[in-house]
Design a protein that fits this description.
With 241 residues, the protein is an alpha+beta fold. 29% of the residues are buried. It has two domains: 64 residues, Arc Repressor Mutant, subunit A; 159 residues, Chorismate lyase. The protein contains eight helices and ten strands. A six-stranded antiparallel sheet has the order 4-5-6-9-8-7, with helices on one face. InterPro entries: Bact_HTH_transcr_reg, Chorismate_lyase_/UTRA_dom_sf, Tscrpt_reg_HTH_GntR, UTRA, WH-like_DNA-bd_sf, WH_DNA-bd_sf. This is GntR family transcriptional regulator. Pfam families: GntR, UTRA.
């Protein structure tokens, strides 16, 4: 089940896309949206931040909330500080599963994922796609799950949206305590260049994420390849007193 702010963000995105709220028009105030959708103002505020991040609306004092576009920006700018930010990214993109197979972790794969060599994993190969630009996928992702977890949600993988770790939490109660992340520059691997609609060895970011439960065990890992012209990764650093 998605967080309420994520559901509200989807509803607002759809309403803007189908013309319920036209470009140049004003959205209802936070207070009015809260009453209309039966949620708290904090939920409304979080949803509006997601919609604004996509370039669909602007918010200014005295000017209110104004619709700026009907479709999200082509390039995604992801600012990641929590698991909830990953959920927000999943809200506005689609998962297109290419294959689901069980694999044994080779020494190189085991080192990348931080798991034991020879351990078995269910690998789901998929594309993340912006519905507004289906011909230019945002990224290719290999998702690795413990076999028992993967078997339990295998049928749902091709049908559902959102994050796979959310599906695992709902089905098995394995909660993500932290996400460890590594980013490096690579050339687009030849095996996925055609699916990404780009040239082999083109500039790309590879993001590896390790999903760790409360016992410190990696139960899911993902390796994503983002062509350089379709994705910007931003990170805020703050000084603590």
């Amino acid at each position: 089940m998605k967080p309420r702010y994520a559901e509200l963000a989807e509803q607002l995105i759809q309403a803007i896309g189908d013309g319920t709220f036209e470009v140049g028009s004003a959205l209802p105030s936070e207070l009015d949206l809260s009453a209309q959708y039966g949620v708290s103002r904090a939920t409304v505020r979080s949803a509006l931040e997601r919609v604004q991040d996509l370039g669909l609306i602007s918010r200014r004092k005295r000017a209110g909330i104004r619709v700026e576009a009907t479709k999200p920006r082509v390039a995604f700018d992801q600012s990641l500080s929590s698991v909830e930010d990953l959920i927000q990214f999943a809200v506005v993109t689609e998962r297109h599963v290419q294959s689901v197979t069980e694999v044994s972790a080779s020494p190189s794969l085991a080192a990348q994922l931080g798991v034991v060599t020879g351990s078995r994993w269910l690998r789901t190969e998929m594309l993340r796609v912006d519905p507004a630009k289906p011909d230019t996928p945002i990224c290719w992702t290999d998702v690795y799950l413990e076999p028992t977890l993967g078997a339990g949600i295998k049928r749902e993988l091709r049908k559902s949206t959102g994050l796979i770790c959310e599906m695992v939490e709902q089905r098995f109660g394995r909660v993500v305590k932290e996400v460890r992340q590594e980013i490096r520059a690579i050339g687009v691997p030849a095996r996925i260049a055609r699916q990404l609609m780009t040239e082999p060895d083109g500039h790309a970011l590879e993001i590896t994420r390790h999903y760790v439960d409360e016992n410190g065990i990696v139960f899911e890992a993902t390796v994503s390849v983002f062509p350089a012209d379709r994705f910007t990764y931003s990170l805020q650093l703050r000084r603590h007193d």
